[in-house]
Amino acid sequence: MARLKDIAERTGLSVNTVSLALRDSPRIPQDTRDKIRLAAAALDYTPNYSARALVSRQTKTIGLLLTDITSPLLTQVARSVEQELKDLGYVTLLAASNGDPEEELRALATFRARQVDGMLVYPHDHSRLDHLRRLRVAGTPMVLLAGDGEGDVDVICLDEQAGALRATQHLLGAGHRRIGLIDGAYLRGNPAKAEGYEMALRTIGIEPSPELVINPEGDSVGHGHAAFAKLMALSEPPTAVLTANDRLALGGLRWCQENGVAVPRDVAVFGFDNIEYAEYASVPLSSVDYPAVDLARQAVARLITLIRNRDQAPPPELIRIQPELVLRESTGRHP
């Protein structure tokens, strides 16, 4: 690999001048900077960020930990985060826990071994954050993108409880009284959507029925298809269904299409996250919008603040972004 010394020898300038020019220092005349950059390109020079990190104590790298790398929503968040960080001169180091707490710990250990400047984390279990709090207290700049927001760690997330509450209220307002829920996250310490669903029902005097809550045992379209089959096989099936994500809802739409169940005439379907495919489903899907770009922007801004104030970190913040409903043809007024 070409070194600063090689560029200096090629241009007849000092190593310090070359270094300043490549950092676009105004102390170096523009024509000299152009000359040095041409020489660097001719030598195929690549900056040694490891060497820079020894001097600056920054690697300009951020660790981003997702729970499911196959999720269209989390892919969109990752893309938005990567763009925000790139604009600020940072590189994103991506990892996924795949819903496994041991994988989550290994990913965090990898981030620390790579000496990332900060971390953005989707925790596997929103109610068990002690290991993440310990990292934050020990001085690791960190922002969680989901969680309960209690304790010594920053959280910037969508208010999922409010999203499920509003979606269920919309279905109730359309006349539905027997509403199903497809969501297994509450069994993994992430109860916000189930709580919002139950809250909406109880507000108008309906006691939630356990038989109408199905654990899909996964988050894919196939899991949604199988869960919908279980709900609609009940002796009194629901007239509306809320799902924990749009992929589950898309599986439900497919089941309805295969079994001659008209959406929304026979059953209304409400998704969550508003991924791109929701608008173009066989029946365009109503969904709770997840503002990935806005969330990424706020989370990155907060993380950079923590990095710049590492020696005297500000008190942790909790920001819950309020959701919006995107209403399409899959929901309608119940007869």
Automatic annotation (TrEMBL):
Record's keyword annotation contains Transcription regulation: yes
Name this polypeptide is given: LacI family transcriptional regulator
UniProt entry keywords in alphabetical sequence: DNA-binding, Repressor, Transcription, Transcription regulation
InterPro entries noted in UniProt: HTH_LacI, LacI/GalR-like_sensor, Lambda_DNA-bd_dom_sf, Peripla_BP_I
Chain ranges of the HTH lacI-type domain: 2-56
Signal sequence, renumbered to the chain: none
GO molecular function, one term: DNA-binding transcription factor activity
Keyword DNA-binding in record: yes
Top-level taxon of the source organism: Bacteria
